[in-house]
UniProtKB/TrEMBL annotation:
Database matches in InterPro entries: JINGUBANG-like (IPR045182), WD40/YVTN_repeat-like_dom_sf (IPR015943), WD40_PAC1 (IPR020472), WD40_repeat_dom_sf (IPR036322), WD40_rpt (IPR001680)
WD repeats: 208-248, 251-283, 299-329
Keywords, in A-Z order: Repeat, WD repeat
Protein name: F-box and wd40 domain protein
Pfam families: WD40
SUPFAM superfamilies reported in the protein's UniProt record: WD40 repeat-like
Organism whose genome encodes this protein: Solanum bulbocastanum (Wild potato)
Keyword Membrane recorded: no
Highest taxon above the source species: Eukaryota
Length: 444
């Protein structure tokens, strides 16, 4: 893996001789765009950061996830661990027997990965005194012991094809998603099933035939409500009652396959994206049992299938087959421009192929604490084999989040000048660098 770091200084971009220089001045620029965001005039700030891509030796990035300030990037059957403090490679772990990594999630002490070979793997992180750390494979699910014990009884087998049977605890197709909550792990697969696992001993507790087509994603709220999204265009809502998961309702709004979902922090808003190029916003109805979630609006702007979504600290980040990353915010100042108040604040472009996975993290301060008043880094992984790091100052880009939080507390702490700044809808700036990316602070 190549790791390079590029910096901006005084609004000049410095690159190697093989790269085309994009900007050498800090004067005002006005650009045209085909997105739904309005066009404004803005300056390139000297406080902006240029961050290099991580270029893998394999042809695609299938999943990104962050845990304990380590970025985990899945590329084909390998998982790469990168220290976000130094952007140094600290480990690469793999096994010659398993296929494409489809999903990565975490418990406090373990790393869980879903694979194309129909299995789930549990990894243990072992810190080292040296620069490099090690990830040890603990178990492969279902465990061999469970397969032997279950295999004794014929009733534990299910028919998957005319002349082939498998145990019900086994996925029979690609495991496409994982989610963890309250001691339970939820796995979904292209075999149309949702399986529930007990994390204390990694045993499979339950298997539910959830959809009529492949399941692409799963998310779970803190109160245990599970959402599964499928290629059949439906999202199903499940709740655990008496140690069994039952169907609560089915959400129908997408016209084609649903590829990605993300929940807000308290589980009251669900975002879903699909091949119909739209993001649907679902909001919880407390007094309506039949409709657990209602569709409140559609977010339009992408010109390709929505492949990944990530809700992070008040902003929604989306990646698409149109090779762009969009950041969406809730406009609490003036919602007349959009029926539900959400708008696209920034478009990040530069990938050569579809954006398959996105994640985000606050930069840590010197004491190792999340620096919420500092810099937010957005990481995007693409089928072009690149991981791009997008950074900008929270003071400039995420003022609307602060404004909304202040409004919710009933405070009016913003000056007239800042109020005018908050009314600006930030404009997407196309990034066309061949081997690195830049996100500029957008100012009035």
């Amino acid at each position: 893996m190549e790791v390079s770091t590029w910096f901006c200084n005084n609004s000049h971009y410095y690159e190697d001789s093989n790269s085309e220089k994009q900007s050498t001045t800090s004067t005002t620029y006005e650009e045209n765009t085909s997105s739904n965001c309005s066009i404004d005039t803005f300056y390139i700030s000297p406080n902006s950061y240029c961050i290099a891509t991580f270029k893998t030796l394999t042809p695609q990035i299938s999943n990104l996830a962050i845990h304990n300030n380590i970025l985990y990037a899945a590329s084909l059957n390998k998982i790469v661990a990168i220290d976000l403090k130094t952007y140094e490679l600290i480990d690469t772990f793999t096994s010659s027997s398993f296929g494409l990594v489809k999903s990565i999630t975490f418990t406090k002490t373990k790393i869980l990965t879903a694979h194309q070979d129909c299995k789930i793997r549990i990894w243990q992180f072992k810190p080292s005194s040296k620069k490099h750390h090690h990830h040890h494979l603990l178990s492969t699910l279902p465990k061999l012991k469970d397969r032997i014990l279950r295999g004794i009884l014929p009733k534990n087998y299910i028919q998957i094809r005319r002349h082939k049977q498998k145990l019900w605890i086994q996925h029979t197709d690609t495991v496409s998603g994982l989610a963890v909550n309250d001691g339970l792990m939820y796995s979904v697969s292209w075999d149309k099933t949702l399986k529930i696992w007990k994390m204390s001993d990694f045993s499979c507790l339950e298997s539910v035939l959830g959809h009529v087509d492949a399941i692409n994603a799963v998310v779970v709220s803190q109160n245990g409500v599970v959402y599964t999204a499928s290629a059949d265009g439906e999202i199903k809502v499940w709740r655990r009652e008496k140690n069994k998961h039952s169907l609560v309702t089915t959400l129908r709004k997408h016209k084609s396959s649903v590829n990605a979902m993300s929940l807000n922090n308290d589980g009251t808003i669900l975002f879903s994206g699909g091949c119909d190029e739209k993001i649907v916003v679902w909001e919880k109805e407390e007094h309506c049992v039949d409709n657990y979630m209602l569709s409140t609006c559609l977010l339009k702007g992408h010109n390709g299938a929505i492949l990944c979504l990530n809700y992070f600290d008040g902003v929604l980040i989306s990646g698409s087959s149109d090779r762009s990353v969009r950041i969406w915010e809730k406009n609490s100042i003036n919602s007349n421009n959009n029926e539900c108040g959400y708008f696209c604040s920034i478009v990040l472009e530069g990938h050569c192929k579809p954006v398959k996975s996105i994640t985000a993290a606050w930069d840590e301060d010197e004491n190792g604490n999340n620096n919420n008043n500092g810099i937010l880094s957005v990481f995007s992984g693409s089928l072009d084999g690149e991981i791009r790091v997008w950074q900008d100052l929270v003071h400039e880009i995420f003022k609307l989040v602060w404004k909304r939080k202040a409004a919710e507390r009933g405070k009016n702490e913003l000056s007239e000048n800042i109020e005018n700044e908050l009314k600006v809808e930030y404009v997407p700036r196309t990034m066309s660098y061949p081997s690195y990316m830049c996100v500029s602070v957008l100012m009035i």
